[in-house]
Amino acid sequence: MTQTTQYRSGSWPPMTTYTSAGLGGHKSPSSRLAKKVYDFEYHLDSKRAQAPGCATSIQDVVANSEKNPRKKAALERARARIADQVSRGDGDTVKSLRLRKGWSQTTLSTLLGTSQSHVARIERGSENVTWETMRKLCDTLDVDMNTIDTMLQRQRSAFESSQK
Questions:
Q1: How far apart (Å, rounded) are the C-alpha atoms in residues 121 and 28?
Q2: For residue 45, which of 63, 83, 109, 146 sits 20 to 30 Å off, Cα-Cα?
Q3: What is the pTM of this model?
Q4: Strand partners, 4
Q5: What is the CB neighbour count within 10 angstroms for residue 146?
Q6: What value does the mean pLDDT take over residues 65-90?
């Protein structure tokens, strides 16, 4: 097997080729600088990479933390503390109300009967919300339809200004 390394800097040789025999050490064809070759495929353990618990997503970490009542209460308090920072003085949004209640996007999505990604798009302002979803948001967040409409318009304008 032959491996080729190209260097971005013009001061280095444009190309150096190593053969599989050179993987154990280094081969310096025309340069005085020693080169070290690392064979990452040799160190990669594909069984370990696919093993459960090896790579954990943040959603899994939060879900496991919320199973513990003490950790769940701490997460809810932390979300409530950052709710005002999220609104940035521009007024309430769906996200700031959700955080004030101490809920994750997953919790809100469960209460609404939708997916977490749908809630994320609503909070970002990139989703056109149906009347049915607006009604569910009103019931779940305990606000009226005018308040939800104002929050969604605020989120939409923030999203559009971020896209420019």
A1: 54
A2: 63
A3: 0.60
A4: 17
A5: 9
A6: 83
Supply the pLDDT for residue 164: 77
| 5: enclosing H helix or E strand | strand 2-6
How many angstroms separate the CA atoms of 150 and 156, rounded? 10
> What's CA 150's distance to the chain center, in Å?
27
Ordered by where they begin, the domains of the chain are 2-49 (no CATH), 58-162 (1.10.260.40)
Can you tell me whether residue 18 is helix, strand or coil?
strand
Q: Determine the residue type at 138.
A: C
Task: Phi first, then psi: give them for residue 81, nearest 5 degrees.
Answer: -65, -35
Residue with tokens 């709710």: 83
Per-residue confidence (pLDDT) for residue 32, from 0 to 100 = 55
Query: Do 98 and 141 form a contact (C-beta atoms < 8 A)?
Result: yes
Integer distance in angstroms from the first to the last C-alpha of the chain?
Answer: 49
Give the angle 144-148-150 at the CA atoms, nearest 5°.
Answer: 115
Q: CA–CA distance from 45 to each of 36, 38, 41, 118, 135 (Å)?
A: 22, 15, 8, 36, 50
**% of residues, the chain, pLDDT over 70:** 64
